[in-house]
Amino acid sequence: MPAAEESTQTTEPPTELRFAYVAGVTPGKWIRRWEERMPDVPLHAFMSDDGEQLSVLRDGSADLSFVRLPVDKEGLNVIPLYEEQPVVVAPKGHEISVFEEVALEDLSEENFLDVEEMGGPDMALQVVASGAGLAILPMSVARHLNNKQTVMRLLTGAPGTQIGLAWLAGTDSPVIEEFIGIVRGRTAQSSRQPSAQQEKPKKAPKPDRRGGGAKKPAVAQRYAPNPDKGRGKGSRKKGKR
Predict the structure, then answer these.
(1) Which class for 240: exposed (0-12), middle (13-18), buried (19 or more C-beta within 10 A)?
(2) Domain spanning 14-83+161-184: which superfamily?
């Protein structure tokens, strides 16, 4: 009988894994790698709003969540993954459309919308399309929403956002560790390292070309233009005609 019990225990169905991700994250490559490496463990993915990126962990809807940092890390393990490139979004036909990129300091006379106060990126872009102001978003989010009545351009002089991977502290399992390893680029043959250890995120794909390592003014860090600086055209780059 003990042998039969042991046999029953070893033939239990495989554990599934569920993860959530915020808009702008494209998990396709991780899903493909998972299916290649762990074909017997079902993987379920769903998109969550920024406001739900942690609640899906705490209510048990997801085992892991790709989140937009910063977040409240209490009771969580969080590892930063990569930085997102910021863009400025304006109504179609706005003067920024003739440039490849725009400096934040050159937009000091523009009205910037608070994306959170607008009810999130989707609603904010609708307000931008009406001509009521500009918005600053991660490029991945602006591309995902793809509002045809707006135009976006790379923005320099503004801090980028970060994407991280979060899961509840104390819920580490071989399945969760395997997924974290895939996201980190760990091969099937490589040795595992404790995933809860913090690591530096990858650099943004397009850094500020204007140089000047001086710390940005606090107002710029809040994604708002600096009213004390003029609208120098020298830092805007013309696009190809």
Answers:
(1) exposed
(2) Periplasmic binding protein-like II (3.40.190.10)
